[in-house]
Amino acid sequence: MSQTIRHPEILDIARRDGKVTVEHLAERLGVTLQTIRRDLSELADAGKLERVHGGAVLPSGTVNIAYEERRRLNAEGKTAMAKACAACIPEDCAIFLNIGTSTEAVATELLHHRNLLVVTNNMNVANILTRNPDCEVIVTGGALRQSDGGLTGDITTAAIRQFKFDIGVIGCSAIDADGDILDFDLREVGVSQTILNQSRRKMLMADHTKFKRKAPARIGSLSDIDVFFTDAAVSEGLHDLCAGWRTDIRVSRPADDAD
User: Is 170 exposed, middle or buried (0-12, 13-18, 19+ CB in 10 A)?
Assistant: First the structure.
């Protein structure tokens, strides 16, 4: 079966089921696993699908993909970014880590830092950092989002305003071509904006998949960010915008992709 026939059929299955897997497609279409992986990568590059562990899902529009899928999506890239971010966080400082699988990866890379005060609205981050005896962890409180352990709402923002952080680390759901930082949940957007307002140094974690997605709510702009960590080169236009804003872009590719 040719690629021109496979691609439309893969998209039809994805629209029907919401997700496709490499093994199921290979068996259904009578081709190798490598061929399907290549097909899914090409469809993802075209913005028609989003790669997840073992397959792909339809691109997000107004609804975020499930937490477990987000956690597995581009895990290697997030780890590379997290290592770079953690290397920029000194010991003996106060930081905020917000909701997101990328910030959870940063928490893992902070397990050997000493004398940290970490405030978070992410129950997963708090659980990770319990393994670091030299880290004091404060959880903001708020309305628990059971899907991913996030805390949001007025209680959360009120708690954050009690602090002034040396560093605030946030994630997002999407980045627009003009540098706008986007998310799906308006309550989460309010929390992220408060984190930025209360942080002396502002860091953003966003891997390359965020440039292929759209989300309706605006957190702010890359012009508000001091250091932007990602895992692939950004477009020339966005690079030029960040240069004008003096936003430092740090690209950290997974070890397998490094030259």
Answer: buried
Same domain membership, residue 145 and residue 253:
yes
Q: Is the distance from CB of 84 to CB of 107 less than 8 angstroms?
A: no
Residue range of the domain that includes 176: 71-257
Confidence (pLDDT) at 44: 85
- Co-location of 125 and 242 in the same domain: yes
| pLDDT of 75 | 76
Residue 16 has pLDDT above 80, yes or no: no
What is the total count of domains within the chain? Answer: 2
Q: Which value, to the nearest 10 degrees, does the dihedral of the CA atoms of residues 128, 140, 172, 36 take? A: 40
Sort strands 55-57 and 50-52 into parallel, antiparallel or unpaired: antiparallel
Whether residue 191 is found in the same domain as residue 99: yes
**Does the pTM exceed 0.85?**
no
